[in-house]
Specification:
Layout (H helix, E strand, L loop, with lengths): L6 E2 L2 E6 L8 E6 L7 E3 L2 H13 L6 E2 L1
Antiparallel strand pairs: 1-5, 2-3, 3-4
Length: 64
């Protein structure tokens, strides 16, 4: 069992495509993030962003 505090972050994630069959687009907004929005052209970039957010404890998370 780890002595490190847990990390909790919440995001609103929107995924859409402009036309049927077109590329998906992604927007991420941290809950309580004062209007911050991040846009991604694909789901791979979204996953990289989320993994980086969870690895960086200095980016505004709430700790248990």
């Amino acid at each position: 069992m780890s002595d490190k505090p847990g990390i909790y972050k919440s995001f609103l994630i929107r995924i859409w495509s402009d036309k049927a069959g077109s590329k998906r687009r992604v927007m991420v907004a941290p809950v309580g993030g004062a209007g911050q929005h991040y846009y991604f052209a694909n789901l791979d970039d979204l996953m990289i962003f989320l993994l980086q957010e969870m690895e960086d404890p200095a980016k505004g998370e709430m700790q248990n």
